[in-house]
Recover the amino acids of this structure.
């Protein structure tokens, strides 16, 4: 129904009378980037979608126009390194025009602003290149202000040149302190700036349009986002945790595409024809001719290498270690569907001692709430999803590893699929409401787990932090509200909104798409013989808010853990309550749910035991010191350029960190490390995880019927 409604709105708007677009002013000294017909169409329709279907239903007016202009300029130049005060003054003429322009699909103003930015960028990169070879006096009492966000815009090129001169000096003194020769440092910095200039030359209108739409949609609310076609594909692949291709992670190095990693199980891995470090210089589809891809943008090269499973791709390779002048090797691979297991749920088993008893605890790390909806719709019985993966992990932990408890690690889990959050909760509660969703019309839908039974009925805990958001908060909130487990960590992000992903290409009638394709081809945007069907990208539109089963929104407030840890992430800088355009907190009626247990008394006892350990914990003490140090450094905006002073500061900080590291290692019975030594993964220590497992040990002791009974458990709470 949503698609039908949007289709009517979309098509009607396309066929409506259009104002003639303004002539975009040209900027001398750069190849001016201009918008195309697809972007004009998408811009108009995003205005329509936001005004009619965004949860706020904001009217795009002069006030919004002003905010968009400020955000766009800040996104381009947040620390005021490029624009001059005269540029900013000139841009004022657009302050109250962007709303009308966007409604008409007119992007001339923001594209002009970007071209001015591009000119300034190249001017100051060129200036930095001349300064890289200069001789600087590193014994002067001088400083460099690296954070200029709150400073005025530079009044002249001379003024900004002086700022850039100090920036180059700062980069050179850093290289000098590292111990490399001065002449080598100049070469390193020259390469760095030359690469930046080369990358700026590859910027296209899709990049500019993405930046413009980011400023626009995020002014409305933080989570309404437009994705251009390339970014939409990346978003959907990340959600599905799979893609179709050869199974290699690629990176750009000196204008050449290089293989950074071979993904186990993929065609590249199974063929044994490719290795990390190999460079790809040409790509051919099946038996077609090769295209030379040296100097291409990385996403353009990747698009040629990816493709539908079962299709053939040929690659010209310069093997790792060989000169670029070496004769290339030609290989052929058949593309397959690649599952990104390294970005999927994983498990490990840890054994702890608590109150003289050993406990085996399974830790399941869930990096996101993903689901391959495309594969599910196609009837693939093995489609990828968080819940399916976790169910298998629980089965292994329960039946093979014989764990006593399970802890779900949702730290840094930014969310994902709402459906997966509900289904995952259903693995730990029997049946009942999980989340309430309020739509545009203020109708409330109580979404439930309808599957009887649980995958795990034993002691359960959830770890969260400030970066745990959205679906993570739905899951953690439901577990807390049902009394199903203990939540440990820091206050979560506070994102209580629901987005719907809309493929804008699917909303346009075939006739309109044919007309658009003809325009695109006429302007030469599509090469002859290529697929002429234009892609319009995707918008994730905020269309609802979700609420816990208790009726409370997580918006702004997030989920407050039962056992709280100090936050390494600054709560006043990261979180929904720091976003100016975020929706407010509110609440709805409590849903009809029955808690599994009342853990109130247990929480109080667990907190006492936790605080007793923390009072003696060296890790806890140092964590608090780290947070205090970070807060102190947050207010710093400048750094000395005196080599002796800067080196002394760095050496002091390095020595302090090394001493702290060795103090902690000694407390764990590990040998001391020296400056420059690498700490192995096996020796790394996760204090929050370790203490959370101790809390779970306490929880099991309290729940043990042979000890003091503090928790009234249902029969299914024991395993």
């Amino acid at each position: 129904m949503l698609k039908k409604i949007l289709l009517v709105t979309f098509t009607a708007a396309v066929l409506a009378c259009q104002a003639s677009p303004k002539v975009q002013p040209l900027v001398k000294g750069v190849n001016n980037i201009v918008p195309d017909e697809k972007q004009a169409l998408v811009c108009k329709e995003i205005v329509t979608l936001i005004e009619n279907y965004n949860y706020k239903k904001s009217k795009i007016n002069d006030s919004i126009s002003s905010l968009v202009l400020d955000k766009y300029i800040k996104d381009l130049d947040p620390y005021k390194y490029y624009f001059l005060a005269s540029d900013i003054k000139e841009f004022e003429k657009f302050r109250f025009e962007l709303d009308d322009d966007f409604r008409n699909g007119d992007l001339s103003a923001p594209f002009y602003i970007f071209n001015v930015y591009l000119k300034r960028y190249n001017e100051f990169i060129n200036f930095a290149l001349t300064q890289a070879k200069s001789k600087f006096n590193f014994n002067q009492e001088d400083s460099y202000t690296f954070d200029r966000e709150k400073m005025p815009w530079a009044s002249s090129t001379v003024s900004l040149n002086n700022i850039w001169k100090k920036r180059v000096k700062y980069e050179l003194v850093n290289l000098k302190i590292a111990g490399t020769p001065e002449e080598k440092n100049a070469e390193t910095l020259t390469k760095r700036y030359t690469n930046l200039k080369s990358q700026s030359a590859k910027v296209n209108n899709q990049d500019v349009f993405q930046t413009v739409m980011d400023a626009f949609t995020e002014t409305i609310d933080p989570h309404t986002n437009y994705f251009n076609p390339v970014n939409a594909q990346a978003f959907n692949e990340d959600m599905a945790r799979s893609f179709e291709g050869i199974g290699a992670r690629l990176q750009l190095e000196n204008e050449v595409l290089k293989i950074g990693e071979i993904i186990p199980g993929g065609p590249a891995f199974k063929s044994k024809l490719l290795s990390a470090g190999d460079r790809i210089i040409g790509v051919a589809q099946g038996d077609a001719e090769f295209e030379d891809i040296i100097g291409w943008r990385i996403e353009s090269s990747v698009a040629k290498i990816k493709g539908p499973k079962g299709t053939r791709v040929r690659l010209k390779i310069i093997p790792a270690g060989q000169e670029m002048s070496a004769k290339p090797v030609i290989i052929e691979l058949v593309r397959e569907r690649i599952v990104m297991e390294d970005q999927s749920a994983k498990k490990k088993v840890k054994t702890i001692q608590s109150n003289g008893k050993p406990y085996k605890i399974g830790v399941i790390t869930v990096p996101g709430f993903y689901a391959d909806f495309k594969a599910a719709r196609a009837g693939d019985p093995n489609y990828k999803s968080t819940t399916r993966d976790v169910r298998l992990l629980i089965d292994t932990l329960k039946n093979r590893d014989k764990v006593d408890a399970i802890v779900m690690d949702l730290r840094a889990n930014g969310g994902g699929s709402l459906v997966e959050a509900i289904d995952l909760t259903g693995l730990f509660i029997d049946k009942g409401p999980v989340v309430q969703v309020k739509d545009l019309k203020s109708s409330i839908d109580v979404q439930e787990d309808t599957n009887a039974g649980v995958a795990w009925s034993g002691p359960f805990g959830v770890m969260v932090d400030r970066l745990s958001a959205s679906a993570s908060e739905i899951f953690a909130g439901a577990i807390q509200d049902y009394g199903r487990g203990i939540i440990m960590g820091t206050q979560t992000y506070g994102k209580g909104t629901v987005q719907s992903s809309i493929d804008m290409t699917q909303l346009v009638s075939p006739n309109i798409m044919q007309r658009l394709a003809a325009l695109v081809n006429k302007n030469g945007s599509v090469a002859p013989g290529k697929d002429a069907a234009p892609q319009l990208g995707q918008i994730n539109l905020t269309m609802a808010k979700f609420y816990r089963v208790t009726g409370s929104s997580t918006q702004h407030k997030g989920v407050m853990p039962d056992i709280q840890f100090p936050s390494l992430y600054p709560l006043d800088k990261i979180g929904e309550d720091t976003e100016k355009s975020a929706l407010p907190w509110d609440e709805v009626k409590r849903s009809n749910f029955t808690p599994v247990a009342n853990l109130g008394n247990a929480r109080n006892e667990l907190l006492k035991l936790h605080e007793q350990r923390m009072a003696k914990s060296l890790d806890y003490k140092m964590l608090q010191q780290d947070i205090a140090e970070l807060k102190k450094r947050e207010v710093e905006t400048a750094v000395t350029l005196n080599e002796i002073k800067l080196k002394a500061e760095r050496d002091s900080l390095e020595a302090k960190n090394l001493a702290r590291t060795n103090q902690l290692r000694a407390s764990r019975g590990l040998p001391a490390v020296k400056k420059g030594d690498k700490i192995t993964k096996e020796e790394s220590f996760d204090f929050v995880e370790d203490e959370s497992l101790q809390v779970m040990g306490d929880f099991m002791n309290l729940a043990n019927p042979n000890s003091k009974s503090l928790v009234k458990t249902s029969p299914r709470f024991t395993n």
In short: The longest helix spans residues 643-667. The CA atoms of residues 26 and 32 lie 7 Å apart. The two ends are 44 Å apart (CA to CA). DSSP finds 21 helices and 21 strands in the chain.
